[in-house]
Amino acid sequence: MTETSGGRRAAPRRRTSDTLSYIPPVREPRFSMKALRAAGVSGLFLAWLAGFAVATTSVVAVGFPDRYARYGAAVLAVVFTAGVARRSGGRSTLWSVLVALLSTIALLTEWAWAMAGASVVTATFGAVLAVLITRPASRVSSVVREYAIALLMATSAAVAVAAWNAPVVHQRYYILVLVAAFATIFGIVWGLGAGLHGLGRRGVTLIVGGAAVLAVLLVYSTFVRTYGSPELVNAIDETVVWLRDTIGGVPRPTEVLIGFPALVWGISTRSNRRQGWWMCAFGVVGTSVMATGLASPNADVTYVALSTLYSAVLGLGLGLLVRKLDPGTTSRSGRRAARREDADAYVRAEPPRFAALK
Predict the structure, then answer these.
(1) Is the pLDDT of residue 345 over 60?
(2) Do the domain assignments include residue 173?
(3) Which of 163, 182, 263, 285 could join 55 via S-S bond, C-beta 3.0 to 4.6 A?
(4) Domain span at residue 75?
(5) Residue 201 pLDDT
(6) Portion of the chain with pLDDT greater than 70, in percent
(7) pLDDT digits (tens, 9 = 90+) for 137-178
(8) pTM score > 0.85 for this model?
(9) Where does the sequence pass through the membrane (predicted)?
(10) Total structural domains within the chain
């Protein structure tokens, strides 16, 4: 203690250590953001399970009224929308509220436009989410697992579409869903930064070729049905009837040749480079066909299920073959990105399955 010139004693100096040693207690937050996110994901998963189970009553005879199945379809529509918005980094709450409002109007009024709109939204976002929910995989077993997860999600979308039972023209409905799903997935993939750089000439050729094959299949099938000769149309019909009578279903060319192989190839390619998302984008062709398979009220559930099964098996085989023959990208930057000391053990990091991709 020191004494001033006026004879008064100065106050003792507080040591710095005394001030720093005291930290006032701070109450921890009741819920962390991590816990809230986990609760939200769990809630979406439980809602998907419940909606899937209720919507399944539209294709399985359990004695439930049709309106209950539509409640399940409405829940699935909201879950699909929230899932796509969450994975793409969008406003999941806003889009979920809008789709929930549309679904509520469809349930309460049963207006044709509302039912058709809700059905289109359900099929579109269900097909897109089936692709977005997959994870990159380097091993065959992991690729098959992710492939099965995508098919399961697309199956739930198909059941939801059947539950809506909207008054639609199947061919127009399918084209509308396919175009909407393509536009959505391409916008998301472009936003992820998976540009065309790094694909090389071979990769771009394959992607453009896939788009050309898809266009040819769609245009040719419509052209043959409308303007084809009676002999050709009868030959196609007889082949379809023979396959249906023999094995119970008919594999779909768009799924076998484009959608499912592209999905398998893309899941594997993403384990090394993000350009694999472009292959996965073409996988939405297969999931869109699945999602719209039961849109027609006269659809035979057994026939559609067997056709999807055969298409899935053949598409998986073709996709694994393409995966085996794929030597990797031919561009210089792509080779640098894909070069690893142990390619089999390396898997490119991506956010978790239920987290935003960007």
Answers:
(1) no
(2) yes
(3) 163
(4) 36-335
(5) 67
(6) 77
(7) 888 999 999 999 999 999 999 999 999 999 998 889 999 999
(8) no
(9) 38-62, 68-85, 92-109, 115-135, 147-167, 173-192, 204-223, 250-269, 276-295, 301-322
(10) 1
Using CA atoms, how far apart are residues 135 and 146, in angstroms rounded to an integer?
A: 7
The Cα–Cα gap between 315 and 236 comes to: 21
Nearest in space to 178 (alpha carbons), one of 287, 43, 97: 287
Alpha carbon distance 283, 226 (integer Å): 28
Q: Are 45 and 82 in contact (CB under 8 A)?
A: no
SS3 per residue for 39-103: HHHHHHHHHHHHHHHHHHHHCCCCCCCHHHHHHHHHHHHHHHHHHHHHHHCCCHHHHHHHHHHHH
Residue-averaged pLDDT of the chain: 82
Question: 172 near 295, Cβ under 8 Å?
Answer: no
Which one-letter amino acid corresponds to residue 17?
S
Residue 341: inside a domain: no
Name the token pair of 280.
């996965």
Closest CA to 79 of 128, 146, 148, 125: 125
d(C-alpha 260, C-alpha 254), whole Å: 9
CA distance readout (Å), 284 to 141, 156, 224, 291, 309: 21, 15, 24, 10, 17
Residue 143 has what pLDDT? Answer: 93
Count of residues in the chain: 358
Question: Interior CA angle at 56 toward 50 and 59, to 5°?
Answer: 170
How distant is the alpha carbon of residue 169 from its chain centre? 24
Q: Copy the structure tokens of residue 204.
A: 């771009």
